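FAQ: What does the model actually see?

It sees only this:
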Amino acid sequence: MSPHPGPAAAVAPLFSPPCQRGTCLAARPPLMTFSRCPFAHVRAWAVLISACLASCSSDEPRVPQRNGTSLSVPERCRFITEERGPFPVTFRLRNDGPQPLIVRWGGGCAWDFRISSCASSFTDALQPRDPCPCLCEFSGCPSCGACGPEEEAIAPGRSSDRQWEGGLLVEQPRGQSTCLEPRTVPAGLYRLSLPVYASSEDARRSAPLRTVVKDFSLPAAGAVVALDLDR
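And it is asked to produce this:
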C-alpha cells in the first residue's frame, strides 16, 4: 500500500543516533556468538544492519540555493509522495475585500514576493529574481529590453493566477564570471510571503497594507495554492 501523502510522520528509530549520523552502529548489544544464536535471529540482525547501511548511503532530498550550494531537508520539512518533480504550482490570488488591492508580481523587474523553504527555516529566497538571466546553456548573455508593468490591481471579487515552476536559477562558475543553471526543488514544505498594497503610491513607497503568508507543500493538491489577499 502506498503511503498517504502528507508531512512525513515521526518514526521510532531502529538504530542509535550514530547510525543517523552515518556511522551505522546498531543500537542494541551485539549477539553473544553466531554459534549460539538461531540462524533466524542472525538473519534478522543482518537485515537490520543492511537497512542501516542503505539508510546511511541513500541520497537525502536537498533544496538548491542561489549560490550553488544546497540544504538537506530534515524530516519535519519533508512531504511523502510517489510523484517525481518538478512540481509546478499556481498561486491563486483572491481579493474578497471591498477595495482593489495591489500586488507587485508581474513581468517587470520588481517581483515583490518571497518563496522560502522549511529546510532553511524559511530564510532563503527561491523566487525568480533576474528578469533577464544569463543562462549557462548559452555562450553569452542576452540583451534585454525595458521592464514591463511592475504592479497589478486585483478588483474586489476577482482573482489572478501566478505560476511558479518549482525551481530556481543557481550560480555556476564560467571562466572568470558566473552563469545560471535551472534546478528544481524537492517535495517538501515551503512558504509564500506576498506584500499587498492599498494603492500604487503605497507600492512605490514599499508601504504594504499587509503581508500575506501562506505555507504550502510541494506537490500541492491540484497544483494550486489559494491566497486570500484581504486577510
